Amino acid sequence: MTKVLVLGAAGKIARHAVSQFVDEEGLDLTLYLRRSERLRNLAGDRVEIVEGDVTDTDHLRQVVEGKDIVYANLGGDDIEDQARSVVAALEAAGVGRLIWISTLGIYDEVPGEFGKWNHQMLDGGYLEPYSAAAQVIEASKLDYTIVRPAWLTDVDEVEYELTQKGEPFKGTEVSRKSIADLVVKLSLDPTRYVRGSVGVNKPGTEGDKPSWY
Ligand SMILES: NC(=O)c1ccc[n+]([C@@H]2O[C@H](COP(=O)([O-])OP(=O)(O)OC[C@H]3O[C@@H](n4cnc5c(N)ncnc54)[C@H](OP(=O)(O)O)[C@@H]3O)[C@@H](O)[C@H]2O)c1
Q1: Residue 185 lies in a domain
Q2: By its UniProt entry, which InterPro entries does this protein fall under (predicted)?
Q3: Which residue among 10, 75, 87, 157 is least enclosed by CB atoms within 10 Å?
């Protein structure tokens, strides 16, 4: 059994990923979240629910111990502190594989008019801490994959393409369901994109802004 730990398990992308994970044979899931009553209905033979805050490094280390893969679906102003705590917990527990959801724009990799618009929308409190968090992950010894989604939609579709770190970001939007699909695929084949950082977009969505703006 591969043991997968989901951090921030009530998050919107995480909920899609969890519903895909439970359909996979051979996976044990631990769902880590604040206010755990939100996911209590998912507890079962292969699904354990643990209440916790990822900034509680000691508690997180105990939960990480014995896991094979950690998928962090976190967010917020303190994302850099969250990254430090997650890295410390995994390194202390001797667990290497981390899938970390970040955002487009952390390397100033979004080209053209959309790149300028993205800065206008996300500078001043969002992109900076997300960039700093990614630097914390990349400075670690972990087998991380950083996932940089385009602007997220709740469209019920799985359609995406990837760009690598160092390449210009493509497209403007992508569905949360697509990001969840990528997370599950990365978990099922833990050798993919190790120590990599991938941009994720829906093909054909190039433009100056996401379609709903
Ligand atoms: N919106 C976009 O267009 C866009 C584009 C690219 C990337 N992103 C980023 O992608 C990430 C995932 O997206 P999403 O839609 O799944 O986000 P989400 O629904 O906001 O999920 C983030 C989760 O992080 C959890 N969290 C925050 N601090 C925590 C802590 N200290 N301990 C434990 N859990 C904590 C939150 O828990 P609670 O539920 O307890 O608050 C929340 O459930 C976010 O960081 C988002 O900013 C967004």
Answers
A1: yes
A2: NAD(P)-bd_dom, NAD(P)-bd_dom_sf
A3: 157
Which atom of ligand 1 is nearest to 38's Cα? 39
Mean of the per-residue pLDDT values for the chain? 97
Position 92 scores a pLDDT of 98
The rounded Å distance from CA 162 to ligand 1 centre is: 21
Residue 135 forms part of a structural domain:
yes
DSSP-assigned states of every residue in the chain: -EEEEEESTTSHHHHHHHHHHTTSTTEEEEEEESSGGGGGGG-BTTEEEEE--TT-HHHHHHHHTT-SEEEE---STTHHHHHHHHHHHHHHHT--EEEEE--TTTTS---HHHHHHHHHHHTTTTHHHHHHHHHHHHTSSSEEEEEEE-EEE--S----EEEETTSPP--SEEEHHHHHHHHHHHHHSTTTTTTEEEEEE-TT--SSS-TT-
Nearest CA to ligand 1 atom 6: 103
Count of domains observed in the chain: 1
pLDDT tens string 4-51? 999 999 999 999 999 999 999 999 999 999 999 999 999 999 999 999
Q: Is residue 210 part of a domain?
A: no
**Given this model, what pLDDT does residue 190 score?**
86
